[in-house]
Structure prediction request, 50 residues.
Amino acid sequence: MPAPAPSPQADHTAACLHCAQPTEYPLDHPGIVLCPVCEWQEAQRSACSG
Prediction:
């Protein structure tokens, strides 16, 4: 099954470091970029770590 064609917005956004889905951040955004789902999951993990 071929991969779906990227949306026009996906061409200008950075890919999530965990799942490679498009994020809300531009390609030149510094730091770690995560999609909204992975950001939420990461926040849950860090909130319970300690």
